[in-house]
Amino acid sequence: MQLASRFAPRSPILRADRPLSDDQIRAVAPSIFAEAAHESRSQRYSYIPTAAVLAELRGEGFQPFMVCQTRVRHEDRREFTKHMIRLRHASQINGDEANEVILLNSHDGTSAYQMLSGMFRFVCHNGLVCGDTFADIRVHHKGNVAGQVIEGAYEVLKGFEHVQESRDAMRTITLDDGEATLLARSALTLKYDSPDKPLPITEEQVLMPRRYDDRRRDLWSVFNRVQENLVKGGLSGRSANGHRQRTRAVQGIDQNVRLNRALWMLAEGMRQLKA
To answer: What does the pLDDT read at residue 7?
Structure first.
């Protein structure tokens, strides 16, 4: 089991190689077990109990393997703040990778209930988030929402067929040096989004493999190297004023999901161009 605290300062995440128990989840993300909405919510706000959703999903064969919640400034929101759970279905767990349902919710109005499709690489404990091409289910905290929740999980699960097709297609596409550099440069622009400032690291650093098996030149391997280096950080670079620094990991829930999805869509665009 791995307990990491880099997802956000003082806001730990817990990821395990076996399904998490309620006690393990509660110790890291107590907001998942909120029994009502935060007192700031009006009567029009439909409370979606994440713990009840989790229980229903477990009954349908989904199990949680990772949980986290955001850091809060006000302690009274700690039990209600935005949280994320990544679940795998028994039928979707396989060798080096597992498809995941990513569940986002809060009980204080900071987010809608949302489910996304994702993929987890066991070799590097690096969660990929698939982009808008595939399932993205949003349920707002209004009206009767119970039926939409479980149905949404299966909509995401169906989307994995398309995810696997794209992944398999990426593995058949070889990138030359120029194409890999172009992908890395585009990815850097997505993360730093500052055309008027020099980038803190180079394309070569973003393309550097962290393990021997990732040295392959196919689009899937190149994409994984780029994604891991940008999300995990730790690369030596320079700030805009020339000072040496190491790149930071993408820590917040929203930033992590947003960058992951953008990178996936970038790789999808390259796949379509090369098809």
So the answer is: 42
Q: What are phi and psi of 45, to 5 degrees?
A: -80, 120
pLDDT at 1: 39
If we measure between CA atoms, which residue out of 171, 178, 182 comes closest to residue 226? 182
Beta bridge partners of 174: 218
The 10s digit of each residue's pLDDT in 164-181 is: 888 899 999 999 999 999
Give SS3 for 138: strand
Cα separation, 203 vs 152, in Å, equals 38
Evaluate if residue 2 carries a pLDDT over 50.
no
Tell me the C-alpha distance between 71 and 75, whole Å. 10
What phi, psi does 86 have (nearest 5°)?
-115, 120
The dihedrals phi and psi of 3, each to the nearest 5 degrees, come to: -110, 120
The listed range with the strongest mean pLDDT (71-80, 139-148, 208-217, 248-257) is 208-217
Other CB atoms within 10 A of residue 79 CB: 18
Non-local (6+) Cβ contacts of 230 within 8 A are: 187, 188, 191, 206, 247, 250, 259, 263
- Domain coordinates in residue numbering, the chain: 2-158, 177-274
Nearest residue to 157 via CA among 196, 199, 102, 212: 102
Q: Tell me the whole-structure pTM to 2 decimals.
A: 0.68
Task: Specify the DSSP class assigned to residue 268.
Answer: H
Q: From its phi and psi, is residue 192 left (phi > 0), alpha (psi between -120 and 50) or beta? A: alpha
Enter the tokens of residue 47: 């409370």
